[in-house]
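Q: My labmate handed me this sequence with no annotations at all. I'd like to see what the chain might look like in three dimensions before we decide whether it's worth expressing. Could you predict it?
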Amino acid sequence: MLFLAQVVRGIDTFSEWTGKTIMWLTTAMVLITVYNVFERYALHSNTAYLIELNWHLYSIIFLLGAAYTLKHDGHVRVDLLYHKLSPRGKAWINMLGCLFFLLPVVFVIVYVSFESNFIGRAWAVSERSPDPGGLPARYLLKTVLPLGFSLLALQGIAEILRNFLFLFGKPDTKGQN
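A: Here is what I predict for the chain of 177 residues:
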């Protein structure tokens, strides 16, 4: 049980680090937006690459920040009964939800992104934006897709182990996030 607790702590630490690192992209995204608004309304100009850069940054923040959000229980939950459950009931819901819903969906997305050669084709043709003046390296963004979902799977495993430890192991382990 001690080993499982160490695994959970290690994954949590990694998710915390990646989440806080990714948060800085939000600052960059806001600054780019402010500049883009200034450019559009004060200079009466507009650059497609800045708009696309914002979309790409948002995608990266969303994909790579999902594990951090799961760690902090920030995902949307349909809370019809969950809030009325005991801590043990919540731990069961969290553990089984990650095991039977989160991980299978994540594994399918990662598998399909490689099996369909979605990323490989983008790299092979050096995929770029179809818009004039758009970003030249869309293939880099597509590479973030399986990376983000892999980080989410890793944090999902930590959630399963955390709730398992709460239910069957150390009584002081926090069951729900």
